[in-house]
Amino acid sequence: MSKESSDQSEQYKNFYQAWEKTMTEAMDIWKSNPLFNEEVQEGADKGAQYKKFYETWEKSSSEIMEKWVNSPLFAANIGKAVDRSSELKKYFDEAVEKTLKNMRFPTKSDIDRLHTSINNLEEKINDITDKIEDLNQPKKTSKK
Description:
The chain is mainly α. Helices cover 79% and strands 0% of the residues. It folds into two domains: 3-105; 106-136. It contains four helices and no strands. It starts with a helix and ends in an 8-residue tail after the last helix.
């Protein structure tokens, strides 16, 4: 086994152990809380109990996630995921384009070409309109 895959295995193992610890702590708090037991105490502040549970869970989870996000393994895997998602998007776009063509629907490239043609026509119309306006304006004669 290469050193890199050994490091990755160790990172995943550490992440899993930390996650398991977080979930165990959360469940312990959940079980020990009278709010979640059948015997809810009269007058117990349910909002405070939920808040305590949430704060404990958030603290332990955020510590684990921060370690994970800052690990080199995470950065490497995110880079790979971005590359793969770019490839997937390209493949998906091509598949949609072919499907639309086979169904005789306009594709994105068809619409883009049409948009370019319309823009070119608008430019030509504007140029012709400007020339017509220039021709319709009376010429100023210079007095000598």
